[in-house]
Amino acid sequence: EKVEITKAQRALMKVIVDAYNRHKIPQDVAKKLLQDQYSAEENFLLLTEMATSQVQVLVEFTKNIPGFLSLNHEDQIALLKGSAVEAMFLRSAQVFSQKMPNGHTEVLEERIRKSGISEEFMTPMFNFYKSIGELHMIEEEQALLTAITILTPDRPFVKDQQAVERLQEPMLEVLRKLCVLQHPQEPQYFARLLGRLTELRTLNHYHAEMLTSWRMNDHKFTPLLCEIWDVQ
Ligand SMILES: CC(C)c1onc(-c2c(Cl)cccc2Cl)c1COc1ccc2cc(-c3cccc(C(=O)O)c3)sc2c1
């Protein structure tokens, strides 16, 4: 059937993409990845700084999602806490797949591989990065997928799931149409994108174990990360 994005849907997409492009890790923070200390401790500290900055960026992006600030306040917090790790996997995955111009990709992989994360988590993590890279998402798809991840109704402790569904559904519909228009030769593309969201949920479990093993080795996180990940 003739798929067409309505004016309202184009306006919604523009709000999300503009917010996504406006809120990014400051270049001076991202550039720190390129400095030349590569000890496990230094890598952990740098990744902690990146994650902390990324959470701040994520909160600002989320506040720009139409309707988010009208949700119940506890539910706003539950959605941010429940989606932070997944949104950060999406963001760091885009760094890998965009082959960041200033060599961030190589150094980011190097630092993640040498930051005290045990081998068993490396495989699923880098498989995810590869599977995102293979999608060659345009920025509209990346921005919508991040908003859809944040607006996942069945996060722990969300009380009014219907209110979150009412915000997520229009995003899913715009993304579905965008995929049909952007990838006419691949009718399954939208389904593949949603499959990544399922893969993201499995990474939540691995990440919880990564946090535990870091904490057992007395690694410290920033107050913001402690709050969003309920640690310490
Ligand atoms: C606390 C810390 C040790 C940690 O614990 N788990 C994870 C994690 C790891 Cl390993 C992998 C996936 C998810 C998480 Cl959450 C992390 C590090 O998380 C991050 C989070 C976001 C970003 C964005 C980056 C980035 C680089 C260049 C450019 C840009 C850019 O947006 O331009 C972004 S790096 C980076 C590192």
What hetero molecules are bound to the protein chains?
the ligand CC(C)c1onc(-c2c(Cl)cccc2Cl)c1COc1ccc2cc(-c3cccc(C(=O)O)c3)sc2c1
Contiguous helical run count: 10
Percent in helix? over 70%
Which regions contain 5 or more consecutive residues with pLDDT less than 50? none
- What is the overall pLDDT average? 94
Major beta sheet summary: none
Structural class estimated from helices and strands: mainly alpha
Q: Note the gap between the termini.
A: 53 Å
Shape: globular
The percent range for strand residues is under 5%
Strand tally is: 0
Radius of gyration using CA atoms only: 18 Å
Element pattern in H and E: HHHHHHHHHH
Describe this structure in words.
The protein is mainly α and 232 residues long. 70% of the residues lie in helices and 0% in strands. The radius of gyration is 18 Å and the shape is globular.
Topology at a glance:
Blueprint: H1 7-22, H2 27-30, H3 40-63, H4 73-97, H5 104-113, H6 119-133, H7 139-150, H8 161-182, H9 189-216, H10 223-229
Helix pairs in contact: 1-7, 3-4, 4-6, 4-7, 4-9, 6-9, 7-8
Bound molecules: ligand 82X.
